[in-house]
């Protein structure tokens, strides 16, 4: 869902006629896919604009039925899509299948919520009627990531489509085949031009985001790309939804089992090789249990077999942070070296002796790296965790109800998880803070973002 899972980096991607994908596990070729010519962007948006008025007039129940059909087609091709995503991004097939199941469930969720998304009446003059009604925003651009390409895309696409918007969907250039298949499966159950898939790198994403005739831009990716999109939207007036980088803290109190805490930290830092929006990026552990915690975390890292990183370019970015931290005084208790052989593999790495000034503590790493800082008190760990430019999520492990209450109130992030690094009820929605973005990206509230409110006052003329 975020961070270097970017699809629209403003710089750094060469513009070519095709995108070539290399399998990050083997180094072999996956295939190539054509890039949408930037000159086509005007035409694609004009077609979407013409289709939008009729789609908005389609009964909400019919729009919902299309999403249900799309969810069924997604489930029917789940094995194929998971295999394709694994070959493009390295995400293990079983984990990818879970993301596809979540994507199908999200489409069905919005199929249920869309038809009952409603405004309200207002009390005014007894001889008149006042209403607040929702209307679709119009034409939506959805720019989605590679690290969970189906689940994230289904959320944005489902909410936009069920509320009567037309969509230009640009999947990540690191997962273009997966995006192409998802776009095809959904477009086949929709009227022409209601959903169009656009392929390309940052230049194509920038052209979409800067277009004057776009009503909403929804982006899940890096903070740098999100800020570029926000600047474009400030000039065009488009509404913006951004879920961008995260530097999620993991705060461990003195009163928890250190081995259990290490298991939670390892899961949060190393699952999908750390390429998860809400992965653990910074660990603050109370000095009272630091020694057994570090021993258990190092052991867990040594036994962990990470999936490859998405490509070698990203591996170099991850390793650069580790290399800088070690040069500045941190120590790798395990990992921290680039392995020989093909692909983009990187070992699960534990860094001890980390300080707040290190880049590995200040910036999102988005790799299987667990930087640890030992703190003398829970309050200091909480205070250091709160001093950060990002504001996506955080995890706190504590047996103290008082400390749990203090933690969720003081941490300036959109989601705080107490005693569980992952999990939560489906449909939860939060606002990311600071460099992590803005706006609801999930849940029923996403339907509000995809629509705008109109007040209608109905009054009869004088007799």
TrEMBL record:
SUPFAM superfamilies: ALDH-like. PROSITE patterns: ALDEHYDE_DEHYDR_CYS (PS00070). Transmembrane segments: none annotated. It comes from the Bacteria. Keywords: Oxidoreductase. One of its GO terms (molecular function) is oxidoreductase activity, acting on the aldehyde or oxo group of donors, NAD or NADP as acceptor. The keyword Ribonucleoprotein does not apply. InterPro entries: Ald_DH/histidinol_DH, Ald_DH_C, Ald_DH_CS_CYS, Ald_DH_N, Aldehyde_DH_dom. Residues 17-456 form the Aldehyde dehydrogenase domain. The keyword Oxidoreductase applies. This is Aldehyde dehydrogenase. It comes from Nocardia flavorosea.
